[in-house]
């Protein structure tokens, strides 16, 4: 049955340039007339039309998720899409969406999420397009989408009622098929194929205790099925398991600041053996042992060093990759394994070519993202299961595992200082000023540290030869310490300055220092070089992770 297609006149709306990970704006902005529709139509234009294509659709369940999903369905039908595979209630975690795109041979997918940004009417919303490999669209595609947003004059949408998305079934919207799927099933099956579930079950049977904080976001249903139903962790292991449109008014970013209740429990006297959390759309993770927080950079290094203990990676790693600001802990593991370690710009999309070409198996970012070639997104629960599998085999605590890891490779003390919602001109002024100084920095000493080299990171993709410039300012000091500064590409108001600080320690007697203390000189040098306080008007960072 054909439905009538409405053609709606519109005009370009400023500010629709996709950032580090899709388009993110205040929810209210997305709800303004034509804003969402303009962007979706521009995606169709940017990908050469949607006619005859198969798409995957889902989101993290935040406020406006359901309404936006209905708009995408109507516009896909109007554009002549053949089929949309959509998660029940329009829910899909980002890694589950990536998996579905790949296993179903879809042409691409739309993910409705602003990831770790808060949700709700006053929070943020986002839309991301992923390509047929299951990964975030590369810059060449997002550029075409952005170009289309600047010239759009009309969009097309079918006239129809909302499609019921509560039952897994196949329905038609005009000539377009809609397959509504259980969001968890395929993902859980994939995890069972990678990890040794019997070993993890035995770990839980032995009395191993875990707490997983789903932060009222999309991983709740995934974690409940996998950890409690399939792996036998006691009920109550997963907390905040029901996805809520405003994430229970929380900030679904799994780090020691925003997952503070979990951190407090893990640092307390009666802490479980293992704690973990995930973010709004399920691609980030936080790992914490009893009394022992593991930085995302260290987590990547530990997974790389122990990968062959896990059946899905028992054949070894082809290579590893990390974003440039991520600590160099994994570099040392790669060196000892004799495999390549690639350094990419911030943004998961930059790992796609390396994974597709079989040059990297594991990837990770300091921003709580870890993943592998099983999908083309970072994957929060996958990282948690990986850790559980390693602990089940090594039969030791997280703290002991970290101590032995540092004894082998040294400890990369690491911290990120974020200055949020800084006035854009001030933030750009700071970066411009620092960029102007880079050439003169080598040889100069700040807070006792002498600059060895300083530059602005540019990435030449070794697979397709594309070049991405302006990817962060980096200052290396004699002795291996480093400061990186860049502006975030995921914020929705003002600018967020990220200052990444790192120093390698090889003396085992100094492995137990508080990271802020261990990095005190590096922090002071960053301030002396960039004048962060005076230029931002802030006495201290808003968030330290
Ligand atoms: C996104 C990207 C990540 C990036 C992170 C932070 O994560 O997918 O690759 O590291 O943002 O980016 P920025 O420093 O520019 O804010 P997510 O979890 O928000 O999709």
Overview of this structure, please?
The chain is 33% helix and 26% strand. The chain starts with a strand and ends with a strand. It folds into 3 domains: 5-181, Alpha-D-Glucose-1,6-Bisphosphate, Chain A, domain 3 (3-Layer(aba) Sandwich); 187-409, Alpha-D-Glucose-1,6-Bisphosphate, subunit A, domain 3 (Alpha-D-Glucose-1,6-Bisphosphate, Chain A, domain 3, 3-Layer(aba) Sandwich); 411-544, TATA-Binding Protein, CATH 3.30.310. The chain is built from 18 helices and 27 strands. The model has no long low-confidence stretch (mean pLDDT 96). The strands form 6 sheets. The protein has a 7-stranded mixed sheet, sandwiched between helices. Strands 20-21-24-25-26-19-27 form a 7-stranded antiparallel sheet. A 5-stranded mixed sheet has the order 11-10-12-13-14, sandwiched between helices. Helix 2 crosses helix 5 (139-151) and helix 7 packs across helix 13. The chain is α/β, with parallel strands linked by helices and 545 residues long. The structure holds 1,6-di-O-phosphono-alpha-D-glucopyranose. The site of 1,6-di-O-phosphono-alpha-D-glucopyranose has 18 residues, from loops.
């Amino acid at each position: 049955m054909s439905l009538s297609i409405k053609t709606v006149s519109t005009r370009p709306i400023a500010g629709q340039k996709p950032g580090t990970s899709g388009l993110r704006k205040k929810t209210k902005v997305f709800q303004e007339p034509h804003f969402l529709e303009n962007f979706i139509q521009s995606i169709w234009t940017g990908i050469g039309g949607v006619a005859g294509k198969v798409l995957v659709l889902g989101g993290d369940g935040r406020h406006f998720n359901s309404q936006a999903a209905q708009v995408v369905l109507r516009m896909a039908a109007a554009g002549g899409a053949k089929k949309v595979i959509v998660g029940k209630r329009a829910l899909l975690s980002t890694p589950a969406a990536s998996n579905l795109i790949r296993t179903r041979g879809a042409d691409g997918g739309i993910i409705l999420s602003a990831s770790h940004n808060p949700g709700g009417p006053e929070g943020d919303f986002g839309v991301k397009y992923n390509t047929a490999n299951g990964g975030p669209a590369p810059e060449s595609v997002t550029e075409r989408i952005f170009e289309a947003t600047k010239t759009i004059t009309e969009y097309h949408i079918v006239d129809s009622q909302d499609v019921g998305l509560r039952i897994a079934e196949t329905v038609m919207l005009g000539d377009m098929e809609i397959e509504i799927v259980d969001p968890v099933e395929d993902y859980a099956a994939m995890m069972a194929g990678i990890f040794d579930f019997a070993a993890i079950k035995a770990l839980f049977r032995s009395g191993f205790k875990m707490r997983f904080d789903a932060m009222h976001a999309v991983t709740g249903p995934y974690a409940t099925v996998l950890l409690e139903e399939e792996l036998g962790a006691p009920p109550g292991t997963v907390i905040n398991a029901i996805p809520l449109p405003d994430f229970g008014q929380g900030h679904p970013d799994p780090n020691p600041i925003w997952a503070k209740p979990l951190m407090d429990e893990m640092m307390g006297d009666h802490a479980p053996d293992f704690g973990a959390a995930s973010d709004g759309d399920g691609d980030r993770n936080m790992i914490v042992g009893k009394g022992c927080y593991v930085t995302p950079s260290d987590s990547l290094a530990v997974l790389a060093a122990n990968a062959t203990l896990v059946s899905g990676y028992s054949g070894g790693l082809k290579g590893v990759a990390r974003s440039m600001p991520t600590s160099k802990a994994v570099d040392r593991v790669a060196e000892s394994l004799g495999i390549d370690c690639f350094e990419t710009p911030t943004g998961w999309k930059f790992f796609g070519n390396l994974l597709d070409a079989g040059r990297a198996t594991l990837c990770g970012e300091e921003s709580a993202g870890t993943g592998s070639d099983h999908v083309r997104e970072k994957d929060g629960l996958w990282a948690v299961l990986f850790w559980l599998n390693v602990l089940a085999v090594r039969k030791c605590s997280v703290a002991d595992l970290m101590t032995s890891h540092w004894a082998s490779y040294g400890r990369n003390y690491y911290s990120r200082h974020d200055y949020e919602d800084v006035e854009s001109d001030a933030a750009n002024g700071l970066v411009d000023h620092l960029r102007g100084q880079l050439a003169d920095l080598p040889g100069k000493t700040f807070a006792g540290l002498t600059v060895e080299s300083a530059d602005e990171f540019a990435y030449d993709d070794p697979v397709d030869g594309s070049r991405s410039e302006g990817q962060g300012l980096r200052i290396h000091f004699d002795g291996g310490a480093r400061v990186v500064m860049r502006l975030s590409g995921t914020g929705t108001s003002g600018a967020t300055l990220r200052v990444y600080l790192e120093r390698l320690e090889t003396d085992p007697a100094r492995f137990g220092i508080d990271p802020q203390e261990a990095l005190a000189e590096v922090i002071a040098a960053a301030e002396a070089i960039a004048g962060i306080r005076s230029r931002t008007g802030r006495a201290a960072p808003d968030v330290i992770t």
